[in-house]
C-alpha cells in the first residue's frame, strides 16, 4: 500500500512538473512520439499493402466465386489453391486436333459467367502508334468489381468503345473521348473511361467488351491473307455459382475431369481435408511456406527506434532533472530518500512516455490515412482498407512507454546521487570524464571491425551484423572523448563557434547522446546506400549493351519491308533527336537466306568468321583448364580478362545487324564515325579501297582474317537453286584487313565491317537492311510512337531500337534513406540546441551582461546545431561503411565461388560510395540545421526572474 501511495505521489509531482515546464515537456513528448509515429505508419502501411488471402482472391476473380480455365491437358488433378496441378495419366496421348472443350458445360447448374481473353495489338495514339495488350472483358459487369474498377468516365458498352488504364493514357497522350484504331483490324474505338487493376496500378492496357476486337481482326485476316490472325491468350471465365452454394470442391473435381483448372474462393479459404484431395494423396512433396523473412529487418528497425528515443529523450530528462534539482532537494529535506527521487524522475518518463506513445500512434494513423493515395501509387496497389492490428499498435505504444522510462533511467540515477546541499544551492559539482570508457570503446571498436571483416571474408552475414553492431557500440563509447577533443579546437575560431565547441565539450552529457542518435540514424542509411550504390555499379559493369550509347538502329524485317526504308528514314530524322550522323548497312549471308528457309532441313547456308587457333587467340576462361585458372584469379584480374578481345565474343550478343554469330555487316566509312566512333582516316581509306575493318583483333592473324562460307541452297529459293543446284559448296577466303585498336572490340553487335564490293567478290549475298543514327538522347515514348506511326502507315515491317542501358541510376530508396537520416539529424540538432538554451540560460544572461551583442545569441545557437549535426554525420558515415564493406566482402566470396564453377561469370564486386548522398548528409544537412537554428532563435533575452 505504501509503495502504491509513494508512486502515486511521484506521478502527481511528475505531472505537475510537466505542466509547469510545457516547452521542455513538449520536446520530450515529440521525441518519443515521432519514432512511434514512424513505426505506426510503417506497420499500418505494411499490413495494408500486403494483401490477405481474401483480397488476393478478389484481385483474381472480382466478385465472382471462381476462375475456370482450360489447360488442354485432358483430365487433371489439382490442389485446392489451384497453384499445382498434374495430368491424371502422364502417359496418355494429347488430342491436339480435336475440338476445344466447351468450358460452359463444366459450370455448376444455375451459374453465371463472363469471359476474359487478351490479345497483343498495335493501336494509334496521340503521338503515333504503340503496342499494348487489349482485354476482351465485360468490365461493366458486377462480377468484375474488385478485379477492374472504374476511376472516371464510363465503362465501354458495345463494339465501338474501350476503357484504358491511366498509365496507358499518360504514355500515349490520349484521354477520355479520344479515338484509337486497332491497326491490325482497322477498326476504330472511342475511349469512354479510365479503369484500373487495384492490385497492379502500373498496368498499361485497353479493355473492350467480348467480340469487339478479336472477331473483327479474325474476319479481316480471313479476308486479307496479308493480315496475320490474332495471337490471342487463353480464355478464362469468372463464374458466379448457384445462389447460396458457390463453387465447392465436388464442382472442382467434376471440372478437372474435363481438363478445367478451377480456383474457387470458397475452397481456397476453407480447403477440404487432405484425404479428399487426390493430388495430395499421390504426391508427398512438401512446400514449406516462407516465414520470418521480415523478422530480422523489423527487429532491427524496432531496436534502432528504441535506441534513438533513448539517446534523444535521455538528455531532455537529464536537463529536466537539473532544472528541478531544487524541487528534488526539497523532497530530500522532507524525508524523501534516493528511492523517492528516482521515482519522481522515472514518473516523469512514465507520464511523458505515455503521452508521447499515445500521440504517436494516433498521429501515425492520421498521417497514413492522409497520405494513403500517395502510398498506394508508390506501392503500385490499392488498399482494400487500412489494416489495423490492435495487438501490434498496443505493442508499439508500449515500446514508446518503455523507452520513455529507459530514457529517464540514467537521469534518475544521477539525480538520486546528488546531495541535498548541492540540489538546494544549485551547484553541479565537478565531475571528470571517465578515462577508461574511451579506451574500452576503442578496443570494442577495433574488435567489432575485425569481426565484421572476418565475417565478410568467411561469407558469414551473422558475423558481419554482430561485428558492425559491436563496432558502432564501441564508437558510441568514444563519443564523449571526441566531443571533448572538439572543444580544444576552438581557440583560434571567432567567438560564437568557439563558445559552441566549448559548451558542447563542457556539457557532454547533453551533447554526446544527441551526436550518438545522429550517428545511429546516419550509419544505417550510409550502410544501405553504400551497399545499393555498389550493387548498382556491379550490375552496370556486368551489363552487356545491345547498342552503342547515343545511337538508334532502324532495321527491316524482310526484303519487301526494306523497300520502305526511305520513308522510315525520313520518319526517324523528323521525329527523333538525330544529331546529323547516319550510316546505312546491309546484311550479308551465304547460300539461301536462313531467315526465310530455316523451316527446311539443311536448307540454308552459313557465314562464319574463323578464329585462328593458338593460345593467343583463345579465351582462357573457356575450354580446358578454365576452372583451374578461375580459381587463381582475383575479381579485378577476372574483370580485366573478361574485357579482353579474346573473351569479349563470349559476352557479346549477335543478331543486331545480322543473324550469324560472327556479326559481319556490310557498310561504308559512315558506320565508323556514326556507330563505332572510330575517327581514323586510315580505316575510312581502307574501306573505300575494299579492305574490311576488323574491330576485334582476336580474329586476325598476321593482319588477315579467314571467312568460311557454306553456299547451301534451298529448293524453295528458286532463283538461286537454278544457278546452284546440288550439293553445298564451301569456300574459305583469307582477307587482308585493317585491325582497329583493342578498345573497339567491345562494339556491340559488330566484329567485321565488310565493303559491298568485297562481299560481291566473295560470292556473298547482301540486302539493304537498315540505318544507324547518332542521337542526342534515348527516344522518349512520344518520339518512338510518332516514328512508329509513320512507319506503320507506310506499310510496317521495320522497327527502331535504342540502348536503354542497365537501368535507372537513381534509386528512390536512396532518396528515402537520405531524407530519413536528414530528418533525424535535424531533429537531434534542434533538440540539443533547445536543451543547450534551457540549460545555459545563466551563461547567456552573463553574455548579455558583459556587453555581447544580441546577434551572438543567434550565432551561438546556429553553431551549436552545426557541431552536433556535423559530428554525428561524420561519425555515422564512418560507422556505416563498416557493414557496407563487410557485406560486399560476403558478396565477393560468393561471386568468386560462382566464378570458379562457371569461369565466364563475373566476380567483379566493387565498393562504390554514394557521393551525392554523402554530400547531402555531410554538407547540406548540418548547414541547413545551423541556418534554421540561427533564423528561429530570438536575439534578445526575455525578462528573467531574479535568482533566489
Automatic annotation (TrEMBL):
Keywords: Cell membrane, Membrane, Transmembrane, Transmembrane helix. It is a multi-pass membrane protein. The keyword Cell membrane applies. The chain crosses the membrane at residues 298-320, 341-374, 394-415, 436-457, 469-490, 511-533, 813-836, 865-887, 907-936. The keyword Cytoplasm does not apply. InterPro entries: ABC3_permease_C (IPR003838), Membrane_comp_ABC_pdt (IPR038766). It is found in: Cell membrane. Residues 303-419 form the ABC3 transporter permease C-terminal domain. Its main location: membrane. This is ABC3 transporter permease C-terminal domain-containing protein.
Amino acid at each position: 500500500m505504501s509503495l502504491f501511495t509513494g508512486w502515486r505521489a511521484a506521478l502527481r509531482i511528475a505531472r505537475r512538473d510537466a505542466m509547469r515546464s510545457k516547452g521542455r515537456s513538449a520536446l520530450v513528448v515529440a521525441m518519443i512520439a515521432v519514432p512511434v509515429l514512424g513505426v505506426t505508419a510503417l506497420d499500418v502501411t505494411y499490413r495494408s499493402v500486403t494483401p490477405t488471402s481474401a483480397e488476393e482472391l478478389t484481385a483474381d476473380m472480382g466478385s465472382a466465386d471462381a476462375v475456370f480455365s482450360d489447360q488442354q491437358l485432358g483430365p487433371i488433378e489439382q490442389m485446392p489453391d489451384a497453384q499445382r496441378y498434374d495430368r491424371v495419366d502422364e502417359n496418355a496421348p494429347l488430342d491436339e486436333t480435336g475440338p476445344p472443350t466447351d468450358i460452359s458445360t463444366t459450370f455448376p447448374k444455375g451459374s453465371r459467367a463472363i469471359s476474359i481473353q487478351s490479345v497483343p495489338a498495335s493501336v494509334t495514339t496521340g503521338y503515333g502508334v504503340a503496342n499494348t495488350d487489349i482485354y476482351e472483358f465485360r468490365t461493366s459487369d458486377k462480377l468484375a468489381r474488385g478485379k477492374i474498377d472504374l476511376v472516371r468516365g464510363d465503362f465501354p458498352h458495345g463494339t465501338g468503345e474501350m476503357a484504358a488504364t491511366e498509365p496507358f493514357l499518360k504514355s500515349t497522350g490520349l484521354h477520355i473521348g479520344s479515338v484509337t484504331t486497332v491497326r491490325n483490324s482497322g477498326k476504330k474505338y472511342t475511349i469512354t473511361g479510365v479503369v484500373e487493376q487495384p492490385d497492379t496500378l502500373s498496368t498499361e492496357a485497353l479493355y473492350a467488351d467480348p467480340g469487339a476486337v478479336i472477331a473483327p481482326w479474325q474476319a479481316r485476316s480471313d479476308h486479307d491473307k496479308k493480315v496475320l490472325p490474332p495471337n490471342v491468350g487463353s480464355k478464362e471465365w469468372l463464374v458466379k455459382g448457384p445462389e447460396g452454394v458457390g463453387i465447392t470442391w465436388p464442382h472442382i473435381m467434376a471440372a478437372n475431369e474435363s481438363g478445367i483448372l478451377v480456383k474457387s474462393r470458397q475452397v481456397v479459404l476453407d480447403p477440404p481435408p487432405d484425404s479428399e484431395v487426390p493430388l495430395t494423396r499421390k504426391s508427398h512433396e512438401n512446400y514449406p511456406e516462407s516465414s520470418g523473412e521480415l523478422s530480422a529487418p523489423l527487429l532491427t528497425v524496432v531496436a534502432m527506434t528504441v535506441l534513438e528515443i533513448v539517446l534523444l529523450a535521455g538528455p531532455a530528462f537529464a536537463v529536466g532533472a537539473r532544472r528541478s534539482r531544487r524541487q528534488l532537494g526539497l523532497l530530500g529535506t522532507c524525508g524523501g530518500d534516493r528511492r523517492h527521487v528516482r521515482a519522481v524522475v522515472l514518473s516523469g518518463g512514465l507520464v511523458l512516455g505515455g503521452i508521447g506513445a499515445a500521440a504517436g500512434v494516433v498521429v501515425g494513423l492520421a498521417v497514413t490515412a492522409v497520405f494513403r493515395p500517395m502510398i498506394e501509387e508508390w506501392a503500385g496497389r490499392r488498399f482494400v482498407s487500412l489494416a489495423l492490428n490492435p495487438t501490434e499498435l498496443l505493442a508499439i505504444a508500449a515500446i514508446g512507454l518503455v523507452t520513455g522510462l529507459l530514457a529517464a533511467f540514467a537521469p534518475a540515477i544521477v539525480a538520486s546521487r546528488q546531495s541535498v546541499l548541492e540540489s538546494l544551492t544549485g551547484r553541479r559539482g565537478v565531475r571528470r570524464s571517465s578515462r577508461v570508457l574511451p579506451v574500452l570503446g576503442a578496443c570494442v571498436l577495433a574488435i567489432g571491425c575485425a569481426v565484421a571483416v572476418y565475417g565478410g571474408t568467411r561469407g558469414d552475414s551473422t558475423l558481419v551484423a554482430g561485428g558492425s553492431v559491436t563496432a558502432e557500440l564501441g564508437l558510441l563509447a568514444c563519443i564523449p572523448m571526441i566531443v571533448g577533443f572538439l572543444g580544444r579546437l576552438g581557440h583560434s575560431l571567432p567567438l560564437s563557434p568557439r563558445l559552441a565547441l566549448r559548451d558542447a565539450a563542457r556539457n557532454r552529457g547533453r551533447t554526446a547522446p544527441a551526436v550518438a542518435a545522429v550517428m545511429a540514424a546516419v550509419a544505417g542509411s550510409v550502410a544501405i546506400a553504400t551497399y545499393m550504390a555498389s550493387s548498382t555499379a556491379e550490375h552496370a559493369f556486368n551489363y552487356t549493351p545491345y547498342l552503342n550509347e547515343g545511337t538508334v538502329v532502324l532495321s527491316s524485317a524482310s526484303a519487301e519491308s526494306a523497300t520502305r526504308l526511305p520513308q522510315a528514314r525520313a520518319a526517324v530524322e523528323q521525329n527523333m533527336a538525330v544529331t546529323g550522323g547516319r550510316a546505312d548497312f546491309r546484311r550479308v549471308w551465304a547460300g539461301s537466306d536462313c531467315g526465310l528457309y530455316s523451316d527446311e532441313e539443311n536448307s540454308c547456308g552459313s557465314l562464319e568468321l574463323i578464329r585462328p587457333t593458338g593460345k593467343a587467340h583463345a579465351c582462357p576462361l573457356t575450354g580446358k583448364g578454365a576452372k583451374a585458372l578461375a580459381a587463381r584469379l582475383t575479381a579485378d584480374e577476372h574483370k580485366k580478362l573478361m574485357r579482353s578481345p579474346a573473351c569479349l565474343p563470349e559476352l557479346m550478343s549477335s543478331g543486331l545487324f545480322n543473324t550469324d554469330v560472327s556479326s559481319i555487316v556490310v557498310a561504308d566509312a559512315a558506320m565508323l564515325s556514326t556507330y563505332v566512333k572510330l575517327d581514323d582516316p586510315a580505316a575510312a581509306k581502307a574501306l573505300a579501297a575494299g579492305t574490311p575493318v576488323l574491330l576485334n583483333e582476336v580474329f586476325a592473324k598476321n593482319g588477315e582474317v579467314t571467312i568460311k562460307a557454306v553456299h547451301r541452297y534451298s529448293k524453295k529459293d528458286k532463283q538461286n537453286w537454278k544457278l546452284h543446284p546440288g550439293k553445298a559448296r564451301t569456300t574459305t577466303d583469307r582477307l587482308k584487313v585493317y585491325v582497329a585498336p583493342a578498345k573497339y572490340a567491345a562494339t556491340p553487335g559488330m566484329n567485321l565491317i565488310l565493303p559491298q564490293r568485297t562481299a560481291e567478290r566473295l560470292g556473298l549475298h547482301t540486302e539493304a537492311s537498315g540505318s544507324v543514327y547518332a542521337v542526342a538522347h534515348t527516344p522518349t515514348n512520344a518520339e518512338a510512337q510518332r516514328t512508329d506511326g509513320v512507319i506503320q502507315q507506310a506499310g510496317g515491317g521495320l522497327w527502331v531500337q535504342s540502348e536503354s542501358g542497365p537501368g535507372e541510376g537513381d534509386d528512390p530508396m536512396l532518396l528515402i534513406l537520405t531524407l530519413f537520416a536528414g530528418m533525424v539529424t535535424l531533429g537531434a540538432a534542434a533538440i540539443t540546441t533547445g536543451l543547450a538554451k534551457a540549460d545555459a540560460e545563466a551563461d547567456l544572461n552573463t553574455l548579455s551582461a558583459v556587453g555581447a551583442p544580441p546577434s551572438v545569441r543567434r550565432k551561438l545557437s546556429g553553431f551549436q546545431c552545426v557541431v552536433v549535426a556535423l559530428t554525428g554525420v561524420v561519425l555515422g558515415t564512418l560507422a556505416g561503411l563498416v557493414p557496407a564493406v563487410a557485406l560486399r566482402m560476403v558478396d565477393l566470396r560468393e561471386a568468386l565461388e560462382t566464378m570458379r564453377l562457371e569461369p565466364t561469370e563475373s566476380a567483379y564486386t566493387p565498393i562504390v560510395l554514394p557521393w551525392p548522398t554523402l554530400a547531402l548528409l555531410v554538407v547540406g544537412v548540418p548547414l541547413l540545421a545551423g541556418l534554421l537554428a540561427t533564423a528561429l532563435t530570438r536575439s534578445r533575452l526575455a525578462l528573467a526572474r531574479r535568482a533566489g
